[in-house]
């Protein structure tokens, strides 16, 4: 079974959060770049949901092309689904 688009989006957002942590980028600076408050950024990270425009801005702030962030999650979910299908056989 394929993962929902919501789950893929949440994974992509979480990947960007992790990239920001690896880059040691403070959430305060990221929130400022996105023109939102830090609590709002935290809420978006926790919910795994944000507007596409904010997702694009965030991905560029952490140095990842938006399409690459989504593509990575889509590829890995497809591989996970394929592996799960093989295990069922």
- Summarize the helix and strand pattern as letters: HHHHH
Please give the radius of gyration in angstroms: 14 Å
Distance between the termini: 14 Å
Shape: globular
| Mean pLDDT across residues | 85
User: Could you list the spans in which at least 5 consecutive residues all have pLDDT below 50?
Assistant: none
> Main beta sheet, described?
none
Number of continuous helical runs: 5
Task: Report helical residue fraction.
Answer: over 70%
Strand element count? 0
- The computed structural class is mainly alpha
Beta-strand percentage? Answer: under 5%
Q: How does this model look, in words?
A:
- The protein has 89 residues and is mostly helical.
- 78% of the residues lie in helices and 0% in strands.
- It is built from five helices and no strands.
- The protein has helices spanning 5-22, 27-34, 38-47, 52-61, 66-88.
- The radius of gyration is 14 Å and the shape is globular.
- The two termini are 14 Å apart.
